[in-house]
Amino acid sequence: MLDEERKLATQRATYEYLRGKILDVFPEYSKKAEDHLSKAVKLNPSLADAWLCLGNCIWKKGDLPATRNCFTLALSKGPNKRILSQLSMLERRMAQGKKHYLLSKMPFSSLRFG
C-alpha cells in the first residue's frame, strides 16, 4: 500500500509540474503556474526541472531572492548547465539592481563634475 501511495504522489508531482510548466509559457507572471509548480516540488522535492521552472515563474513576479532559492535547490539535485546559466543571469541581474539602488541613494553633493 505504501508503494502505491508513493507512486501516486510521484505521478501527481509530475502532473503538477507539467501543468505549471504549460501555464508558465507566457512572458507575464502566472499565479496558477506558480501554484502548480509549488505543489510539484512539495510532492517531489527531487524534481530539479520543477524547481528551475518555479524559479523562472517567480522571477517574472520580481521576487529575486526566492528565485535564487529555487535555482539553488534545483542545482542541489545535481549539476545542470541550464540551471547554472539561469543562476548566472540572476546573479548578474541582482548585482545590477544593487548597483542602481546604491547610485540612487548617493547624495548629489558627493558627485564631482568636471
List keywords for this structure.
mainly alpha; Serine Threonine Protein Phosphatase 5, Tetratricopeptide repeat; 114 residues
Question: What is the structure about, briefly put?
Answer:
This protein is mainly alpha-helical. It has a single domain (2-103), classed as Tetratricopeptide repeat domain (Serine Threonine Protein Phosphatase 5, Tetratricopeptide repeat).
Give me the secondary-structure topology.
Elements: H1 2-23, H2 31-43, H3 48-61, H4 64-75, H5 81-105
Helix pairs in contact: 1-2, 2-3, 3-4, 4-5
* CATH top level label: Mainly Alpha
In one word, what is the shape? Answer: globular
Based on CA atoms alone, the radius of gyration comes out at 19 Å
How many domains? The number is: 1
Q: At the fourth CATH level, what is the homologous superfamily?
A: Tetratricopeptide repeat domain
Secondary-structure class: mainly alpha
What is the H/E order?
HHHHH
Number of helices: 5
Unreliable runs, pLDDT <50, ≥5 residues?
105-114
The amount of helix comes to over 70%
- Mean pLDDT level: 87
Beta-strand content: under 5%
CATH architecture: Alpha Horseshoe
**CATH topology annotation:** Serine Threonine Protein Phosphatase 5, Tetratricopeptide repeat
Largest sheet: number of strands, sense, barrel closure: none
Distance between the termini: 78 Å
Counted beta strands: 0
Give an account of the 3D structure.
The radius of gyration is 19 Å and the shape is globular. Helix 1 (2-23) runs antiparallel to helix 2 (31-43). It has helices spanning 2-23, 31-43, 48-61, 64-75, 81-105. It is 75% helix and 0% strand. The protein is mostly helical. It has a single domain, classed as Serine Threonine Protein Phosphatase 5, Tetratricopeptide repeat (Alpha Horseshoe), CATH 1.25.40. The model is unreliable at 105-114 (pLDDT under 50).
